[in-house]
Design goal:
It is a single chain. The chain has 5 helices and 7 strands; from the N terminus they run ααβαβαββαβββ. It has 166 residues and is an alpha/beta fold. The model has no long low-confidence stretch (mean pLDDT 93). The structure holds S-adenosylmethionine (SAM).
């Protein structure tokens, strides 16, 4: 009984402390995932960076289309679940445990996020820097939250697609 109590406290802590650094865990549903990947229109072999990859469902759906995925996740429980979830696609999917604000992002063709309003301006600045640094375009797909002051190139059911040119 004591062990169960301890496990529950640890789980609540791990899911709760994330709000200090970003959005809490809430998964994107299948329809939105499929629509997001359709809007991004990545080709097999291209790379998608997922900032806060949760349980890995978006990463798995992307890998099914032959897309390479690098996912960052802060919650270690979700990191384990995401790794298990994508194990069949391990040649395409890399799940990293860490805070995506404090890591050097790999070169990428696109980014997927489902964050919170208050992080969108900071994210915009980071993507502008990354685009200049890598010298090629990045597409951003944000679920639910828009980038303030930037016009999406497409928009469908709460999915916002942006293009960052070098
Ligand atoms: C709203 S959920 C979205 C999960 C997944 N992208 C999806 O769409 O199904 C946001 C996720 O980002 C993670 N997260 C929030 N801030 C983070 C940070 N700074 N670094 C890494 N992961 C973070 C949370 O733990 C949570 O799993």
């Amino acid at each position: 009984m004591h062990n169960l109590y301890l496990v529950s406290i640890i789980a609540v802590f791990l899911f709760g402390f994330v709000v200090l650094f970003g959005a809490p865990y809430l998964p994107t549903l299948k329809k939105q995932t499929d629509d997001a990947l359709d809007l991004l229109a990545l080709k097999p072999g291209q790379t998608l960076l997922e900032l806060g990859c949760g349980d890995g469902r978006v990463a798995k759906a992307a890998a099914r289309r032959g897309i390479r995925v690098v996912g960052y996740e802060l919650n270690p429980i979700l990191v384990i679940i995401a790794k298990l979830h994508t194990v069949k696609y391990r040649k395409l999917v890399t799940i990293k445990w860490g805070n995506f604000w404090q890591t050097n992002w790999p070169e990428t063709d696109a980014i997927f996020v489902f964050l919170l309003d208050k992080y969108m301006k900071k994210l915009d600045k980071k993507i502008v820097q990354k685009t200049k640094q890598q010298g090629r375009e990045i597409r951003l797909l944000s679920f639910t939250f828009e980038i303030p002051g930037r016009k999406p190139i497409a928009n469908k059911g709460g999915l916002f697609l942006y293009k960052y040119s070098k």
